[in-house]
Amino acid sequence: MKKIISISLLFAAILISSQTFAQHNAKGHAHATGPHGGAVESATEGYHSEIVTKNAKLYFYLLDATGKTSISKGVTGEVLLQFSDGTTKTVSLTSSADGFLANDPRAISFANAIVTFQANGKSVSVKFKPQAPAKAADNHNHQH
User: Fold this and answer.
1) Are strands 76-82 and 88-96 parallel, antiparallel or unpaired?
2) Which of 64, 81, 115, 139 is the 20 to 30 A CA-CA neighbour of 46?
3) For residue 120, what pLDDT is reported?
């Protein structure tokens, strides 16, 4: 009897952990807003990355596993921008404060952005899709 209970508990633990892993990797997995107010995606090697559009420019931030800005000193990167017209462009990222700037006038109109950082001897990559604009308040349920 104890053996059956142990096997059942082991099976339940495996099932729960695999569901958690699947949810983390499933489409639609949402991260909290990043420390710079942008969208965050999971990257390889245990990192995360944040994308921010500000003043018609595209910025990327390398974040650690806890979502805090990683030190950008010694980190380099590039972004492969894919556009809806089928064209692509690779842009080297330039260091900007604690993040990186994709200095290209078309950068903010990307359909996909695949970022690759070189950090601590590791290649860290992440893919971003454009974020839907935030909905404006509809003001239909306000009180007078």
Assistant:
1) antiparallel
2) 81
3) 85
